[in-house]
Amino acid sequence: MLDISFGEFVLIGVVALVVLGPERLPTVARTVGALVARAQRFVANVKADMQQQANLQGLDSIRQDLQDAAQSFRGQLEAEVQQVRDTIDQGAADARALADEAAEPFHEAERTIHGGLEPDAEAREAEARPAEEAPAVQADAAPPRDENQLDLFDDALAHRPASQPTASQARE
Fold first, then answer.
1. What are phi and psi of 145, to 5 degrees?
2. Distance between CA atoms of residues 145 and 4, nearest Å
3. How far apart are the first and last CA of the chain?
């Protein structure tokens, strides 16, 4: 602490004994000892506080570094997520374009079959006509039959000519 040798302490003690006298010297020595002890505790507390502040500053810098790293990671993650979303959106747009391209021959065939009529044109024409002019719809009328189309689910008896006898008539 201080650069005072043993001889210097003895000299200070002899001067104090002569100046203060033997009656007051022990009281003054106790008081000086208590003041020195209090000063040592104060210095120790100041050192501990300084060390704690240094540690907190180190922790603050570590905390700041961690926050910076977290922000950087979050930014990278958001960029990757946005890139994936853009890729998915692009794939969906490509799929829609391919679906539209694949559906075009079907639409062309539909226009060719229906003679270029719009599907709702007949319904609009029927609404435009007055109720008296509307053709009567028969519930038991058979749908028009295309003779060029093979119908596997037709009843064989309904299309059999009348000249051929049925199996029950042949037995009689």
1. -110, 130
2. 129
3. 141
Contact 16, 24 (CB under 8 A): no
Q: How confident is the model at residue 134 (pLDDT cuts 50, 70, 90)?
A: very low
Report the phi/psi class of residue 129: left, alpha or beta, with left for phi > 0 and alpha for psi in -120 to 50: beta
d(CA 85, CA 74): 16
Q: Are 134 and 126 in contact (CB under 8 A)?
A: yes
CA 59 to chain centre: 31
Residue carrying structure tokens 């003895």: 10
pLDDT bracket for residue 5 (50, 70, 90):
confident
Token pair, residue 156, equals 């064989």
166's CB contacts (< 8 A; 6+ apart) are 157, 160
